[in-house]
Batch of 4 targets.
Target 1
Amino acid sequence: MSTSSTIEFKGYNNYETAATIYRHHDGYIAGAGKDLMDFLGEIEELGSTGQSGLASSYVVWAYKKDIQAEIVSTRLDHGVNFKYVVTRVGNTGVDYKVTVTEDNRHGVREYELTAELVASEVAAMEARIAAHEAERRS
């Protein structure tokens, strides 16, 4: 079973959605969340870009990293496990805030995506993989 996610890039007014990207696999924080933070870190180095241009840039960036992501024409909420919303902060155009809505069997929760959260989730995922590998070998 895959863990799907969407990434919504809000427009300049931070209300309208400029573009939505759908990822069918690896929607978890340690997957799509980490990829999004890596992308935003790289794009900040390049300078300001519009939000719809940012979405297109993400798809190209993802393609180069062999990540399956596509811009979709409709808003997808049903059946999506993680929804990431990217909004601009301030007037510079290179500072972003990412809000995550996680919908799983325990309910729905919303929180801000931070570098610390991503690092924690990646470490937890790596520990689970190592434990699984050790169990499999024994």
Note: The mean pLDDT is 83.
Target 2
Amino acid sequence: MGAWDAGIFANDVALDFLNELDAIDVLPSLAAAVALPNGEYIEEDAGIRALVAAQLIATAKDGIEDRLPEAARRIVSRMGRPPSKEMVAAAKIATLSVLTSSETKELRSELGSEEFKKWQNEIKSVLARLN
């Protein structure tokens, strides 16, 4: 059984993406992860990758690392420069899309109301940090 929970980093897709990012050029990969098609339903893996990227972009923007796993902190430190305004804007749009119309949202809603609220609050926190 894999990792699966309400947190952004609490599932296998997120952990695999962090491992992938640890071995490649970070900024282009983050930009690709948040470049979701407008108005389309977002599948689970794409939604998770977008949320992980948005969290990393928010952290690079504001420097707040307190709730990140160690692997995510390493990746942020390797980014080398703050994210561009365009990347931050793309991260906001992607995060809103996952929050409103995605398989990721549907699956988290099946965790029960308390866990789903925790997930929503975590996503809203990332959105606030991207503003």
Note: The radius of gyration is 13 Å.
Target 3
Amino acid sequence: MDAGPVLDRLASEMGLVTHVGAAGDRYRLNPLLAAYLRAERADRPQVAADLHARAARWTVVHDDAVPAVGHANRTGDHALLLDLVHRFTGALLVRGEHRVHRDALASCGDATTADDPWLALGSRTRRNRARRPCGDAG
């Protein structure tokens, strides 16, 4: 089932979501509904983790690195997070999404990062870019 028509109806008839973005293919929840859902989620952490895992996998299909890694970081699923960090490290660093990358590596743990050459390289590259502005040859 395509969620677009359902979200369009929720936006136009009920005001539960609003269109955001130029293409009109992204939506934002009503702030009151979002607060209610966050409170519900706090009472059921496993449900929240499962929803974040589903959201991470959905954003992977759409090649959207930042939300994919962000959602994976909230799942508690170490294997999923490692998979997405491996997949998206280059994209995150090139796009300047250092905070997302740093947070994901912190969740992976120092031992995992040190033992994994790709994670160690990404971590080192991110730290070097943070110290030296683009275009600085020195």
Note: The first strand starts at residue 17 and ends at 20.
Target 4
Amino acid sequence: MPKKNPSRHTSSNEFDLSLSYADIDESDRSKESLDDKFRDASGSMINWTEAGFVFLPNRIKYLAIVPSIEIAKKEFEPNEIVTFNIVFRNRLPFPIKIRTESKLPWSWSINNVEKASHYVDFDPSSEQGTFILERSERRSYTRKWSQKFRVSKSKWEDAMNGEYELSAWINVPDPQSKGLQANTSFVIG
């Protein structure tokens, strides 16, 4: 039967069921406090990444992530390397975790040719994955395009002069309508 804690005011029918260090047998004590056993890696009592994944509607999670593409200039000479940064930013003060269609959480394309390659040498699994951004995190990926499209395992074709669209997205169904795709354009020639 729980013992009455004389230091707390309770009515005659109430008992204080809270534990104090004195209530724990000496053999059960460890160097860490009782609360530490229930904390996640960051020291929080709640694993906010998992809590947000479970309780936040997908629509809110999608609105929290802002994809963008940073490109140094809009005009490139033929055969000049096109360097760009793909940035994903979480605008909320808690982590966001979304389910993706495969283990590859995001991708990019030039004129709707994913990774500038008509030849696919890697088949991502059909197994779903996740994309996680910590609270207010800004994650950037740098990629370079040599102005060549891969057409077979060992053959590449030069890009023609003209305007090109660069896209980056999180690997979810219809990322454009969910606000999880960024687009920009540049000119070669």
Note: Residues 1-38 have pLDDT under 50 and may be disordered.
